[in-house]
Write a structure and sequence with these properties.
The chain is α+β, with helices and mostly antiparallel strands. 26% of the residues lie in helices and 33% in strands. Strand 2 and strand 3 form a beta hairpin. The protein is globular, with a radius of gyration of 25 Å.
């Protein structure tokens, strides 16, 4: 009797749960699962780093723990996080954190007054934040990892549409999203390798 009363009393509640959350649940699924490719131009002086130190192999092909000196050499610039990497190290399937920047060119460097010498000013990057995604493609890079002189190297990463919406882009737009001709990737930090690389390295 007690069990039946619970079942009967819960039927209206169950009906409400079935009717109401269906639309909101579908919206949640679409927001989380949908992705859009984002094209980001790589700056000429873009810094490529990798979060984890590359594995060291001895003469017999077995992995070894790198020494302090080896880690220092792998790090390169001590002011930069992670370890030094090259453009050719960017591979499809990697998770990367890209630092975005806008190049701010100096104003007129001429100075008023006779006898004053012109003091050249350097261009500098204005930070526009960071974006994290999965590498879908790298355009304008040859087999040796060098940029093509006739094309601007471009990194294409797959990003969740929720993140795109926060950045002010329309997630429902079709095709790739381009951040703008004046927006560049100043740094790319490789956070993780593709699953196939992890599996092969663990064997």
């Amino acid at each position: 009797m007690f069990r039946n009363s619970i079942l009967v009393g819960s039927l209206p509640v169950l009906a409400m749960l079935i009717a109401l959350p269906s639309q909101t649940m579908a919206q949640r699924v679409r927001a989380v699962s949908a992705e859009r490719n984002v094209e980001i131009q790589l700056a000429d002086d873009a810094i490529i780093r990798v979060q984890k130190a590359p594995k060291q192999i001895d003469d017999k092909g077995k992995p070894v723990t790198p020494t302090h000196e080896q880690l220092k050499a792998l790090k390169g610039d001590p002011k930069q996080p992670g370890y030094a990497a090259e453009l050719s190290d960017l591979k499809v399937g990697q998770i990367v954190q890209v630092s975005l920047g806008k190049l701010k060119k100096p104003k007129d460097t001429s100075t008023s007054g006779a006898g004053d010498e012109k003091k050249p000013q350097k261009s500098h990057w204005t930070s526009l934040g960071e974006i994290t995604g999965r590498v879908a493609k790298v355009h304008g890079v040859d087999d040796k990892g060098k940029g093509d002189k006739n094309a601007q190297p471009t990194l294409v990463i797959s990003v969740d549409t929720v993140l795109l919406a926060r950045m002010g882009h329309n997630p429902s737009s079709h095709g790739n999203v381009t951040l703008g001709a004046d927006v560049f990737a100043t740094k790319a930090m490789i956070l993780s390798q593709p699953a196939t690389d992890k599996q092969s390295s663990s064997k």
